[in-house]
Amino acid sequence: MKSEGFKISNYLLASKQKRFLNFIFDGIIKLIIVRLVITFLNISEIANRIDSLDMVERYLFWSIISFVYYGMTETFLSRSPAKYFTKTIVVMDDGSKPSLMTIMARTLLRILPFEAFSFLRGRDFGLHDKNSKTFVVLKCKLEEEIKEHLELVSLEKS
Length: 158
Description:
Layout: H1 16-40, H2 44-51, H3 55-77, H4 81-86, E1 88-92, H5 100-110, H6 127-130, E2 134-138, H7 139-157
Antiparallel strand pairs: 1-2
Helix pairs in contact: 3-5
């Protein structure tokens, strides 16, 4: 969706409420996926081991799960399953799809302890958005805005 001269406007950005819903829904989806994999593979020993992890081990376990979950979904789809529900998408400042390295940086930053609290600072971006230079925007508004931008560019050229 890259468009020369296009920049993300503030009104395209997903609200803090949608971002919070993404966080909650993605957390629930990750939990369901892990439980389903354990159940279908009938690996009660691993389930017991997960349940007995101490706080640091549990954090590391869920960090790995999060890295794989967000890394795969945002690399291939530019959105996690929760972002489908909230109709949002991850993009660069020009509306283009983030590169693999950008998504990996975004995903690594996301697993920092207390990173989720970085969204509580007023209108500031969260650490994983700010440092990876990505934006979570409303998909339909982005598509409309890019379409209008392309129409204006074509009018200017003619």
